[in-house]
Amino acid sequence: MDKPRSAIKLRQLEYFVGAAKTLNFSKAAAALFISQPALSQQIAELEAELGAPLFHRKGRLMRLTQAGEIYRTYAVKAIAEVHAGRIALDELAGMTRGRLRLGVSQSLVHRLLPPILGEFIERYPQIEIEVVEQAPADIEKGLAEGVLDVGLAFAPAILDDTELEPLLEERLVLVMRSSEALAGRESVRLAELDGKRLVRMTDNFSTRHLIDRYFITANAVPNFAYETNSIEVMRGIAAMSDVMAIIPEGAVSSDYGLAVVPLTDPTPIRVTALLWSRNSFRTYAARSFSAIVRERFPTLLPLSFATANEPALS
Question: Is the pTM of this model over 0.85?
Answer without folding.
Answer: no
